[in-house]
């Protein structure tokens, strides 16, 4: 007897399955069939690539046995099977970070939570929604010993050696008293059709049905054993587009995504002439949970002539399209392609290029609410694309959106350029910590006054790198407003004049602040604020914050320019101030409060507060 304790997280999960996830229980059938189909896929691949299995006269199949008398369902496959170690690792523990994330993400809303089951790869455990006695009898292809894994869904499981002829897995599920509804053929068939119709292998149901022979008095009704295929067993993507309805696509999406929502968009393409391949891609309405994790799982399955090859090749699409779910089926790759051959493969590179274009073109065409949904979920990934996918930069620039100083919501470059000065062909932008900081920035004042739109890029880490890389949008040039002169009506001579007039003041402030600032100067970009700070874009460190962050270092501070608004009463008074102590305090206050307006922190907060207190006391 080999009794084992479930890993703690699984214990938690099992409790959840048995006690709280009451809605949508039928999905356990989908989850088990999906596991069986994966196991058959794996053996199919071994048969093609491993000489040991070459001659076997085998074809994949799933068998569901409905046993009313025994109150049980059996779901059996002739797939790759599991050995003792696999059982321990796959069913007894969860290696993936998934379960913890799953438990953390539970909302308490039963319907939503059961939707999460598939996403987190805890499919097998869904069986405990309907059963307290589960046995997994399984034999791994190429090995002699079979094993039985059994559990009542509490804290323990047991693995013992058993005998079994064929490789593959049998899931024996004793149903709870109140779950008898799953013992009718009609119910099982409905569930299979709903979720697993396009699993590429036949799913056979075996059941007993009343059959009457003879007439009148002679009539005898007997239970007769019958078998019927429950699914269409066609690979959906291989069916011509014209024969498919939206429902077919949605159903298949749900079987891939393990969810029950509709996709935002699907695109089905068959490419012929030269290379031949079919792709079917879906864009989910809600980003996959693990999209922003380094260990995200790929959602693209690669097939060769309908034979499954792999679902963990993250190179099939560019990384920034990791939210796309779907299938690639190539006619040109050899059937016995090994996973190693897939690396740097020309055929795949060509498919990837074609697929990427198609997906981006489809995204570009999204309109209204769909476009908004897309932007809300995936805008940051599109920015990631801008700095990683040079070939598709133009398409990506047509998709990406930003907040704007003059508009509500998100605007595209096309929106911006349709409104902006078509003589100048300049796109103004500003990068900052948050939308609020950007909107309140003194640097915007001159643009607001002149009614010039500025794009507000509020994802600082990403935008700091991406914005300068965009450079141009068609004939338009992007301009960071912190690095250029503000729009105003003053001539260069007039500016020179003002600069001279305040030279004594700017020199004196520079003397107080020393090396902390690169230069103190007057500006015409401000209207209501007395001062602002702008970055030194000529510094070799400009725009390298992200690089330093990635190396785990904070960037050495680059000196800032302090700019003063010569029209502001405070600056005019400061120019005439005779008290040197107060002057020094004011110089620092001007600098530190300008930093605060840009979302930067004063270097010495205590000193900042003390200076304000001193100046305020004086003023009172
Ligand atoms: P997932 O299928 O998302 O990985 P599951 O909890 O459903 O999560 O299954 C865990 C693992 O157990 C699978 O990844 C697979 O390795 C193994 N497994 C489950 N069912 C079968 C089966 N019928 N045949 C072979 N292996 C299986």
TrEMBL record:
The similarity comment for this entry is: Belongs to the heat shock protein 90 family.
Tell me the gene name: htpG
> Can you quote a single GO CC term?
cytoplasm
- Where does this one sit in the cell? Cytoplasm
Identify the residues that the record assigns to the Histidine kinase/HSP90-like ATPase domain, covering every copy: 24-179
HAMAP family (alphabetical): HSP90
Record's CDD domains?
HATPase_Hsp90-like
Binding residues for ATP: 31, 35, 77, 82, 90, 96-98, 119-124, 169, 339
| GO molecular function terms attached to this record | ATP binding; ATP hydrolysis activity; ATP-dependent protein folding chaperone; unfolded protein binding
> From which domain of life does this come?
Bacteria
Its chief place of residence is cytoplasm
Query: What InterPro entries does the record point to?
Result: HATPase_C_sf, HATPase_dom, HSP90_C, Hsp90_fam, Hsp90_N, Ribosomal_Su5_D2-typ_SF
Tell me what this protein is called. Chaperone protein HtpG
Q: Note down the stretches annotated as region A.
A: 1-339
Residue ranges, annotated region (C): 547-620
Question: What is the protein's known function?
Answer: Molecular chaperone. Has ATPase activity.
List the signal peptide residues: none
The organism is uncultured Sulfurovum sp
């Amino acid at each position: 007897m080999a009794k084992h304790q479930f890993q703690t997280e699984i214990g938690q999960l099992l409790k959840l399955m048995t006690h709280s996830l009451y809605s949508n229980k039928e999905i356990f059938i989908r989850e088990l069939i999906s596991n069986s189909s994966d196991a058959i896929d794996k053996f199919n691949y071994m048969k093609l690539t491993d000489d040991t299995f070459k001659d076997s006269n085998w074809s994949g199949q799933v068998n569901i046995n409905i046993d009313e008398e025994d109150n049980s369902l059996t779901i059996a496959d002739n797939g790759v099977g599991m050995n003792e170690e696999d059982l321990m690792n796959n069913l007894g523990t969860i290696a993936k970070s998934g379960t913890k994330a799953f438990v953390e993400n539970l909302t308490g809303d039963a319907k939503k939570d059961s939707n999460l089951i598939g996403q987190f790869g805890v499919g097998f455990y869904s069986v405990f929604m309907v059963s307290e006695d589960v046995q997994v009898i399984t034999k791994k292809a190429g090995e002699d010993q079979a094993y039985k894994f059994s559990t009542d869904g509490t804290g323990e499981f047991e693995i013992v050696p058993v005998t079994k002829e064929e490789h593959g897995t049998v899931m024996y599920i004793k149903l709870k008293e109140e779950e008898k509804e799953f013992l009718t053929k009609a119910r099982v068939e409905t569930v299979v059709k709903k979720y697993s119709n396009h699993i590429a292998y036949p799913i056979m149901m075996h059941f007993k049905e009343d059959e009457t022979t003879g007439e009148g008095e002679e009539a005898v009704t007997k239970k007769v054993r019958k078998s019927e295929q429950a699914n269409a067993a066609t690979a959906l993507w291989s069916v011509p587009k014209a024969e498919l309805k939206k429902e077919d696509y949605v159903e298949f999406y749900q079987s891939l995504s393990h969810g029950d929502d509709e996709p935002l968009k699907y695109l089905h393409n068959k490419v012929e002439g030269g290379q031949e391949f079919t792709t079917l891609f879906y864009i989910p309405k809600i980003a996959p949970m693990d999209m922003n994790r380094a260990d995200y799982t790929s959602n693209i399955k690669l097939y060769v002539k309908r034979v499954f090859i792999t679902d963990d090749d993250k190179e099939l699409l560019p990384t920034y399209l990791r939210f796309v779910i779907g299938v690639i089926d190539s006619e040109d790759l050899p059937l016995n392609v090994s996973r190693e051959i897939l690396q740097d493969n020309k055929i795949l590179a060509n498919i990837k290029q074609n697929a990427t274009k198609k997906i981006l073109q489809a995204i570009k065409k999204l309109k209204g609410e769909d476009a908004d949904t897309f932007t809300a979920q995936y805008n940051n990934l599109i920015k990631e694309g801008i700095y990683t996918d040079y070939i598709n930069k133009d398409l990506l620039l047509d998709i990406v959106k930003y907040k704007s100083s003059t508009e509500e919501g998100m605007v595209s470059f096309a929106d911006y350029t349709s409104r902006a000065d078509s003589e100048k062909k300049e796109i103004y932008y500003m990068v900052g910590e948050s939308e609020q900081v950007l909107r309140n920035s003194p640097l915007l004042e001159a643009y607001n006054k002149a009614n010039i739109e500025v794009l507000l890029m509020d994802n600082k880490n990403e935008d700091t790198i991406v914005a300068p890389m965009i450079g141009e949008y068609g004939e338009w040039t992007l301009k960071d407003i912190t690095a250029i002169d503000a729009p105003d009506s003053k001539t260069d001579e007039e500016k020179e004049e003002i600069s001279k007039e305040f030279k004594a003041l700017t020199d004196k402030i520079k003397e107080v602040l020393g090396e902390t600032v690169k230069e103190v100067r007057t500006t015409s970009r401000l209207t209501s604020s007395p001062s602002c700070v702008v970055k030194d874009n000529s510094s070799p460190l400009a725009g390298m914050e992200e690089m330093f962050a990635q190396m785990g270092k904070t960037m050495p501070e680059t000196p800032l320019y302090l700019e003063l608004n010569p029209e502001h009463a405070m600056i005019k008074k400061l120019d005439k101030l005779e008290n040197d102590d107060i002057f020094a305090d004011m110089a620092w206050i001007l600098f530190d409060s300008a930093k605060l307006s840009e979302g930067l922190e004063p270097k010495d907060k205590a000193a900042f507060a003390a200076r304000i207190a001193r100046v305020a006391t004086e003023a009172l």
